[in-house]
Amino acid sequence: MLTLAKLLERLKNEEDEVRKAGYNIIHRLEFFNAKKGIEYKMIEVPTVYGIELVPVVIKYRFGVHAQGYVRSDKGLVEQLWDHVFDLYVLRSYPFPLATCRLGAPIRIVWITPIFHPNIAPGADYGGTGVVCWRAFTKWTTIMNMLNIVEGVKQLIENPDPNDPIYNPPICLEAAEHFKRRPPPKVIAKRKTKQEQVGT
Asked: What is the biggest distance separating any 2 CA atoms in the chain, rounded to whole angstroms?
């Protein structure tokens, strides 16, 4: 495990990389206090296996612009482009947690509404905020914050109806919908520096 100082240095570099790539860190909440020797706070986070108590160092709130979907009040499936999620960075980051079913040293909780088989809407929209993503069980130490944000964007744009979340029911409904009407596949393309500055 990295020392807290090394972990914070790494996270600062990763934050800079995420911002340079054009992604929005809406909020950052620290749960450590180096002066008092506090390195993390145990926080309950919803997962596909239920509520999990994990050692969180920092919670980030990200805004992502991606082609997703939402079900309207009239029951129609409509496009939704702006999404928000919380990324919890655990004390072992970037190393996996051997003691948890989800080995990744991160947890993600969805905040905004969404109609997706692998992402439950946020708690304010009748869901649990649970995200079912293979990276949680296939974590490698070369992954970083930018990989995570870009991976979540890919998950939004490319739902997998064959591996849905079973609760809340809206995820199963989304799976059935996307089996009948698959959304267009979106290929990831990282912006060049020229595209980022608009030249």
From this structure: 56
Query: Which CATH homologous superfamily contains domain 4-184?
Result: Ubiquitin Conjugating Enzyme (3.10.110.10)
Q: Taking the domains of the chain in order of start, what are their residue ranges? A: 4-184
Give the span between the Cα atoms of 104 and 84, in whole angstroms: 20
Question: What is the model's pTM?
Answer: 0.90
Quickly count: other Cβ atoms within 10 Å of residue 85's Cβ.
Answer: 24
Cβ-based neighbour number of residue 15 at 10 Å: 17
| Residue 30, amino acid | E
Question: CA 61 to CA 103: how far, in whole Å?
Answer: 21
Per DSSP, the three-state class of 29 is strand
Closest CA to 107 of 41, 50, 59, 166: 59
Report whether pLDDT(90) > 60: yes
Q: For 16-34, what is each residue's pLDDT tens digit?
A: 999 999 999 999 999 999 8
Q: Rounded to whole angstroms, how far apart are CA atoms 77 and 71?
A: 4
Distances (CA, A) of 83 to 22, 25, 79, 128, 152: 15, 12, 11, 15, 10
Pairing status of strand 50-71 against strand 24-30: antiparallel
Task: Tell me the residue ranges of DSSP E strands in the chain.
Answer: 24-30, 41-47, 50-71, 77-90, 106-110
**Residues ≥6 apart with Cβ < 8 Å to 67:** 79, 81, 156, 157, 183, 186
The amino acid occupying position 102 is: L
Q: How far apart are the C-alpha atoms of 67 and 2, rounded to whole Å? A: 36
